[in-house]
Amino acid sequence: MSSLVDDVKTKTPTCTICDAVEEVPAVFYCQNCGKNMCKSCEKGHSTWKPFTNHVVVTMSDVLSGKVQLKRRRECRKHPGESEECFCTGCREYICFRCGMMDHSPEGHRVIDAAIHEGKLMENIKGLRERAKSKKTILEEHIKFIGTQRIEVMKMMRKLHNDIDKTYKECVQILSDRRETLKSRVELWSETFETKLHAMEEESSQTINHMAAVEELVTNGMNVQLEKDALSAHDTLCEKLENILEEDCAKNQPPRGVVERAQQISFRKYLEARELYLGEVEDHKLTPVLIADVELPSENNMNCVARTPAGKMAVGLQVGGIQLYSPAGELHGTVLKECSVHGIGFLSNGRSVVYNAFNKMLLYSPNWKKLDVEFETVSGAEGAFGGLTVDSDDGIYVAYRNPNKIQIFTSVGGNPVREINCDECQPFQIFSFQSQRNLLVSWSGKIVCLDSMGNKKNVLEEKTMFAYPAVCRDDSVIVAWVKPEKGHLLVDRYTKSVFT
């Protein structure tokens, strides 16, 4: 519609009488003929006797609205007759005689031109009113778009500011860490320099002492030596010989310093991702493979959790917790006598372990058992379904058979609260860090519950099993598995999907 309006506004009227190949601009308009004319055609039109009474106006006056055009023109076939009728079938104005003679066959409907124009004007009026209303709506919509643009720009500026702030904080952390490491290197450098300088001084003193003894021995040969002098000379010679026979590098002290220095190296921090600035969120993100870690505990792993130090703790069915670096390096095994079915870590570094007897145990950061007891559901009453710890050190234990979740504090004792899960069987349970929500999964369903157990959102794949994990930024990675066909699909969702 905009294009059509522009065409009407910008299109130059052309002569409708000329037979020229190229279009000739129209300069005049005949109100009787209803024709646009160029200068040449207007000259011939004015000199032809039947048209001498026709009213001709300039095209500029027509376009500017200065001249009011006649509403009806004379019939071409019947001069003197006005086109007072309109044929709806042919869509043209005609005179009364044309209507009776040429437009009387069946299918033609001739009406009064004034009636047609009235309907046409009424339709135009309605279109104008609708256009006016639509224009108002669109103007309001444009204003709304403007306000939304301002809000979007505010949010984008905030993202920029947050990224810059985080970047500066990370740079400061790295700068402080760099200075600490360089200070340690300087300390080692001073230590090694002191040792080497002492060795250098000792060697210099030996050279001076050897030179003095050599001089005394040499000077003693210039005089006749008596008995006492001869004895002293012999002693000096023997001392010089001992000095010469000494192996100055028998213990290779300088090389030992170098070897000691070589034992000190800089190892790039494998967990440098801790300083990763963050992520601009989308509702569904593509997971990025960080490392492909092959764990030796095949068909033996019950749970996996991240330690406060950034390591990976793997709970084993046969007993123990294996600790791995993010690169897959095994750093050791703890609690070898304990069959681990669930593990979580508190903010102070302590760990909560759930064993095969439905007992929950608390350990110090050094993996020493603490004298704290939790009144959990016994193995005879319900099957264990999962363990998680929230950002406030709340400990959540899920049971599959009773279909409920118990919440404990780190002081132990009875649960402070319970959540009934009538519509789900909590096989796995995870907590979000920035909100008091829980993620519960079983079979092919993943359900987000608030702190009171109310359902907030559900993800479901009826033909697949769901294995989710909540990341530290509260995004969720889900492995959808179809075991019988060996299919695996990994999706990542932002936290907004579950809020």
Task: Offer a concise description of the structure.
With 499 residues, this protein is of the alpha+beta class. Helices cover 33% and strands 23% of the residues.
Report on this structure.
A hairpin with a 4-residue loop joins strand 4 and strand 5. With 499 residues, the chain is of the alpha+beta class. Helix 5 packs antiparallel against helix 6 and helix 5 packs antiparallel against helix 7. It has seven helices and 25 strands. The strands form seven sheets. A four-stranded antiparallel sheet has the order 7-25-24-23, with no helix packed on it. A four-stranded antiparallel sheet has the order 8-9-10-11, with no helix packed on it. It starts with a helix and ends in a 6-residue tail after the last strand. The longest helix is centred in the middle third of the chain and has 108 residues. It is 33% helix and 23% strand.
Main structural class: alpha+beta
* Parts with pLDDT < 50 across at least 5 consecutive residues: 276-285
- How helical, in percent, are the residues? 25-40%
Give the oligomer, counting copies of the same chain as homo and different chains as hetero. single chain
Net shape:
elongated
What's the N-to-C terminus distance? 43 Å
**Can you summarize the main beta sheet?**
4 strands, antiparallel
Strand numbers in spatial order across the main sheet: 7-25-24-23
Give the overall pLDDT as a whole number: 80
| Strand elements, count | 25
Tally the helices: what do you get? 7
Strand content: 15-25%
Tell me the Rg in angstroms: 49 Å
